Amino acid sequence: MDISAVNALSYEDFVNTFGNVVEKCPVITAAVWSRRPFVSLNALEAAISDFIDELPESGKEGILRCHPDLAGRDLQRGTLTRESRQEQAGAGMDALTSGETERMARLNEVYKKRFGFPFVICARMNDKANILRQLSESCQNERAVERARGIEEVKKICRLRLQSLLLTDGANKL
Amino acid sequence: MDISAVNALSYEDFVNTFGNVVEKCPVITAAVWSRRPFVSLNALEAAISDFIDELPESGKEGILRCHPDLAGRDLQRGTLTRESRQEQAGAGMDALTSGETERMARLNEVYKKRFGFPFVICARMNDKANILRQLSESCQNERAVERARGIEEVKKICRLRLQSLLLTDGANKL
Q1: Which of B10, B17, B64, B65 should we substitute to test contact with A (largest number of A Cβ atoms within 10 Å)?
Q2: What CATH number was assigned to the domain covering residues B69-153?
Q3: What is the pLDDT at residue B1?
Q4: How close is the nearest chain A Cα to the Cα of B61, in Å?
Q5: What residue in B sits closest to A61 (Cα-Cα)?
Q6: What architecture does CATH give domain A62-173?
Q7: Which parts of chain A register pLDDT below 50?
Q8: What is the ipTM of this complex?
Q9: Active-site residue, A67 included
Q10: Inter-chain CB proximity A27 and B59 less than 8 Å
């Protein structure tokens, strides 16, 4: 799907196609439809990024809170979104040893208790060891630092999801 | 559930309970968790309302775009959220004559083409005839007027959903 096809989408088709590029936040996709036409994929990505940057800090924390834990309850129960399931599986989150699962669960709880939002990382750009290390280190950070780091990860995830939709799935779907 | 029980909820339980008080916008609920503690139901409602008011106009349009058409495809396909299904049924949207269905569909299309977002109205505060009349009249309005009217309806819907959760379902669930 090229960008002119994207620009021709009704808001309903646009949200149906791109509504989960920011996890469980279709309102962000729905909002940036107002900024059409986009000159490129990068421009669409920039519009999403700008919208997120203009939110109050509570809104950024809200975005993080819409993300599932890594190797958490949603993965175990099969209630992850399609995108998250693929990303977590790609980073080996569905194939942890029992010791790793326990360590991940413990660190996720420490992190959420400290910050009031979950640890978010672009799983497709990291492997299991790297994720565990960064989660552990992040537990020591300040809240504002973690909020900003998490939002940068949200943007990386968004970029990769947009690319997947525009370069592969999206072309078949529309 | 009283407000102290609400204030004691983890962000995960808070979003699971109240995540759809603004249709398909759990990020709004997730954001206002940052503003705890709430002194009352009214304070929680005000926090949501304030968050919406502070969004850019594109964000408000995004909220409207997350709403289904009245008596539209989602109702026919059974893909409405639980809350929307109950509300639309209460206003008789699931029992239109074929003539009414056709008129509603035609007006919805006119409205969406004109404004780029769907007609939103608090179904629980209106009946079938009233909804059809207001939809028809709204098609003549200016975009900014309709955006503002729609957002006020979103807030009415939110208030009634919050009340339902806090006064009935919510008390049983938690």
Answers
A1: B65
A2: 1.10.3330.10
A3: 87
A4: 6
A5: B31
A6: Orthogonal Bundle (1.10)
A7: 169-174
A8: 0.94
A9: yes
A10: yes
